[in-house]
Design goal:
It is a single chain. The protein has 248 residues and is an alpha/beta fold. The chain has a single domain, classed as 3-Layer(aba) Sandwich (Rossmann fold). Helices cover 28% and strands 27% of the residues. It is built from six helices and eleven strands. The chain binds flavin-adenine dinucleotide. The site of flavin-adenine dinucleotide (FAD) has 29 residues, from helix 1, strand 4, helix 3, strand 6 and helix 4.
Length: 248
């Protein structure tokens, strides 16, 4: 089974987020980047298929050279080879089009993505990709078993789970639960050394059209100072909620 894992290179969740003075661009100064956490769950599940069922794993990122550490880390975790499509990712539709070309050329049986990127939270790449390549698609997956060309997928639904069957080829958007958190992989020294020798192919952009362009970003308003009210002062609380906060 040939697996492609799509890796999004995103700011660490602890990063302090700032924008350029005109608010038009994300300010990358001092920001640490990591593999998108949802993609880590997908990569860990891919590793299970590699170790138990002999699957091969290619990891892919649409991004400039600054995204390569996430690909190298994926190789250190155990992916066999990596592809970087050499263009900045600034539009989910364009990213899906770039990925689709590679999938079509290489006939992957299973494409694993994350449910959403934790930076821009578009949640659109996997669905658009599946449509462009005409693969079956299941979103929000918390479980995946493969037997031959048959897949059994557990999907999160409101308040519970749904179990579906499908056949390969298939696109899966994974999330927490696809593997247990304790089964996420941390690269060891041997993996890091081996990753240096594994192939990382740089593919030129297909110049996919950009459909959206950000104009301005705004941060949430700063929280006001807290006001402590005596536990018994119900009238004062109601007055403040009504006349000052204007929420009741
Ligand atoms: C430097 C930079 C500048 C950006 N500027 C803008 C901007 O101006 N406006 C804006 O809207 N967005 C911007 N983005 C975000 C960009 O749109 C998204 O990274 C990309 O388009 C994915 O869209 P999404 O959020 O819908 O991904 P989602 O659909 O939320 O991602 C779901 C899954 O798709 C896969 N995936 C997503 N992106 C990639 C990728 N690049 N390569 C491989 N797999 C991927 C991953 O598996 C991911 O878990 C910028 C990103 C970067 C790195």
């Amino acid at each position: 089974m040939k697996i492609l894992v799509c890796i999004s290179h995103v700011p660490d969740t602890t990063s302090k987020i700032n924008f350029s003075a005109d608010g038009a661009e994300f300010d990358t100064n001092g920001v640490q980047y990591v593999i998108n956490p949802y993609d880590e769950f997908s990569l860990a599940r891919a590793m299970w298929f590699k170790e138990k069922q002999g699957a091969s794993i290619t990891v892919i990122t649409v991004g400039d050279a600054s995204t390569e550490p996430s690909l190298r880390k994926s190789l250190a975790i155990g992916a066999d080879d990596a592809i970087r499509i050499d263009v900045k990712a600034i539009d989910g539709f364009a990213v899906a089009k770039q990925l689709a070309e590679i999938v079509k050329a290489n006939n992957y049986d299973l494409v694993l993505t994350g449910r959403e990127s934790i930076d821009y939270n578009g949640g659109m790449v996997p669905g658009i990709l599946a449509t462009l390549i005409d693969y079956n698609f299941v979103n929000a997956c918390v479980g995946l078993e493969i037997d031959g060309i048959n897949a059994t997928i557990t999907k999160e639904i409101d308040g519970g789970t749904e179990i579906l069957s499908s056949t390969l080829p298939l696109v899966i958007a994974g999330q927490k639960g696809l593997v247990e958190e304790k089964d996420l992989r941390i690269p060891n020294m041997r993996g890091i050394m081996m990753a240096r020798k594994k192939p990382l192919t740089i593919v030129p952009s297909n110049n996919a059209e950009l459909y959206t362009k950000s104009i301005k970003f705004d941060k949430p308003k700063e929280k006001g100072a807290c006001k402590i009210i005596d536990a018994g002062a119900i009238d004062e609380l109601i007055d403040l909620l009504h006349n000052e906060a204007k929420v009741i």
